[in-house]
Amino acid sequence: MEVTSIIKTLSNETNLQILSILRSGTFNPRELARILQKDESDISRRLRLLERMGIVEGRWIRAGNKNIKVYSLKVEEVRISFEPGEVVIQTSRNGRYEIPIPESKIPKVENFFGREDEIKLLSSPEKRVIVIYGIAGIGKTALAARVFGDAFWYQVNEADSFDYFIWQIGLFLNSAGYSTLLEYLRGGGREERDILELVLDGIESTGMKLVVDDLHKCTDEKILRLLAFIAGRMEHGLLVILSREKPRLGIVDATYIRLKGLDLKSAYSLIKSRGVKIDLTDFVDIYQLTMGHPLALNLFAEAYIEKNEIRPEKFFDFLFWEVYQALNRDEGLMLQLLGLFDEPVEYGAIKHVYPKKNAFVVLYSLLNKGLVEKRGELYFLHDLLRNIMKETPEVDEREYCSRYIDYLIEKKNIKDFLRALRYAVRLKDRDKFRELIELRLRRFKRIIQDFPDAYMKVLLQLENDPYARKELGHIYFQRGFFEKALRLWLEVEDRLEGIHRADVMSSLADVYMELENFEEAEKYLRELEKIADESEDLEIKLWYHVELTKFKYYMDDPEGALESAFKELEIIRRMEPYPELESLVLLHIGDIYLGMEKPEESLKYYHHALEIARAYSLPFMEHLAHGELSKAHFTVEDYKKAVEHAGKAVEYYLRVRNYRRAVDALAYRCLSYIGLNLPDRGEKDAEEMIKIAQSMDYPLGWAGYIFLGVAKSLKGEDGAEYLRRGKEKLKKHPWLYDAVLKELARVYKAAEAGDLFAE
Ligand code: ADP
After folding, report:
1. From atom 26 of ligand 1, which residue's Cα is the shortest distance away?
2. Contact at 8 Å (CB) between 268 and 176?
3. What percent of the chain has pLDDT over 90?
4. CATH code for the domain of 608
5. Per-residue pLDDT averaged across 126-143, rounded?
6. Atom of ligand 1 nearest to the CA of 242
7. DSSP assignment, residue 58?
8. Which residues lie below 8 Å from residue 757, measured CB to CB, with a gap of 6+?
């Protein structure tokens, strides 16, 4: 392949992100797309390209009866050397493969003037937190971009949310070699405290610099808390905050810089660089009017007018309208269009929305005039100009925003989907809104787990809309607020149509089962059955069987549950790949078989689930399967294998701070060690269980005392005190206590166990 096209491919930000993620393992394109919030077919295309270039390696693996493609990094280094007459690109498997930090989100200032003192101060900062504040357009962004070109740049947007912010930081840290945060988030971790600690840990271990631009726009409490948290504790990283007002984050130990205009000399250089010919003495008056405000200077250079025509009041607006009136019609239209967008937008979007063919030329002319700014591949109007533009509502907002929505939907990723939804809300276009919610149900199922904050924020803007309320119910349900979800769903159940009605029926059946009201659950299940029978929609049929399986399982009808679970599998396999659910259903089938005392069958399905999870790079599902496999192997007294699988689960769950599941796996490993007569190891696991129970009071953790007592007595030591303590702690949970003893009895002769507990 040609050298230039390799360099081009490697200089693409998305490609670099893909490579940086592949550094941590083997991935299926689908999961990569989820992590990067991109369209899956786009990711596949890029992977194939990188494969052709020999940088990544694709291979097929077999999961069940399917072949699934996975990719991993083939080389660790790409070396470009300049030889006489040619440029050579070499790759090697040794050495470092360092991913340059994506730079494109950082604004570029081509001609930068002045600010020598500030640059000096910022280049060797004495404190870990720097706050630059000052009025709009005064040059905060330009200054920070000049000094912190290698930082992670976060542009605050009113619509942003904590989960989205954190995911971006996770991605960045991952590319810098710290993968724990991203892994935690992918594993479904959402505890604020954990996240704060992981972000801090990531920043400290990578020395990350974080620039938060336009903090005054931030309305998300959790983001503010995070910033205050890291600001107070950081020792190696750097936090740079840009804001119009001095922020009230309670950060004491920070360097504060209040930015004023450019000095006379720099201001003069700026307008001269824009091609204005004016004497320094004449410029002095202008300078005093602008106070060296760089954006005003830019406008002045564009509008260059005799100074006696300028009125000092509303100087900025005056300059702007001077410039605006001199624009041709296309330029005016483009400016108004850009004024409609709440965020920087890419050229593709502008081309799609702008009604004429000359988008490129017009955009560039505005860029040259300093009216439009560019950040990476994104174009936008400075907030100051956008606010002035708002006073000219000449464009048809509805028409252009609708076109933008269509463009965003086509991008097929979560981020743009959320954006589309926001515009639909802004236009109060309820049909579009409904259509988008349907898309959420079918294509963007993961939003509820991955970006609940962001999603909730949009939904709350249409809080009274029944479709929005139904979706809010899903978020509450996911967070464990079952009563709240129930209330919302009951309230809207008669106000929804189409697939949404099926959704609410299935949700109601589900939540009633969680609340152990099986009569009501059955009622909704029957409703759902009717809808599913009359519909050809596989999605609805799937929901029905998911709920039916659960219902039968609770009703102690394992045969019925099994039948329905197999039906689920059959439907899933007729739909677009849905590996998370497929492996989950396989695990359920395994559970049902285990309950039916058919451990051999259950092992088969657990293994199958493991294969699917691995093939699609779903670590959470993979370790769920390991946990179940350990349980099943334990049941058939294969303690060695039980230890092996439990070990994998323990290690993963501790890493992603899912302590409940870690304890579950620890319990089986500990019991297996006892079964293998390795009390020393059992003792360690028991102690770990107790440690977790002490910090979070997860009842099963207290069984650690019982296991510890048993391990001690196996070693010939006195374990009675531990046994007593374990019994005491589990007193409140008699059911759990019995279950623990039952499992213990498998590895420790019942008679002896009985002896142990003799008072
Ligand atoms: P703020 O972040 O304070 O709102 P910006 O950094 O966006 O302001 O600056 C506004 C405009 O002025 C931008 O177009 C920017 O490129 C230009 N600008 C700011 N500072 C300078 C400078 N020192 N030299 C040249 N241009 C500058």
Report:
1. 112
2. no
3. 51
4. 1.25.40.10
5. 90
6. 2
7. E
8. 723, 727
Task: Check if 107 has its Cβ closer than 6 Å to any atom of ligand 1.
Answer: no
Is 367 in the same domain as 516? no
Do 141 and 213 belong to one domain?
Answer: yes
Last residue of a domain, one of 395, 416, 447: 395
Domain co-membership, 250 together with 273: no
In this structure, are 269 and 220 located in the same domain? no
Q: Whose CA is nearest to atom 14 of ligand 1?
A: 295
Q: What distances in angstroms separate CA 86 from CA 5, 10, 11, 83, one per listed residue?
A: 15, 18, 19, 5
Is residue 96 pLDDT above 50, yes or no?
A: no
CB 677 within 8 A of CB 647: no
Question: How many domains does the chain divide into?
Answer: 6
112 Cβ below 6 A of ligand 1: yes
* Domain assignment present for 422: no
> Is the C-beta atom of 113 inside 6 A of ligand 1?
yes
Report how far ligand 1's centroid is from the alpha carbon of 110 (Å): 11
Query: 140 alpha carbon to ligand 1 midpoint, in Å?
Result: 7
Q: Is the CB of 249 under 6 A from ligand 1?
A: no
Task: Tell me, using a 6 A CB cutoff, whether residue 294 lines ligand 1.
Answer: yes
| Angle at alpha carbon of residue 412, lines to 441 and 23, rounded to 5° | 110
Q: Has residue 643 been placed in a domain?
A: no
Tokens at 32, concatenated: 């990569």
Instruction: Say whether pLDDT at 757 is over 80.
Output: no
Look up the domain containing 66 and give its range. 3-92
Does some domain include residue 642? no
pLDDT-based confidence at residue 309 (cuts at 50, 70, 90): low
| CA of residue 236 to ligand 1 center, whole Å | 29
User: In terms of domains, do 615 and 497 share one?
Assistant: yes
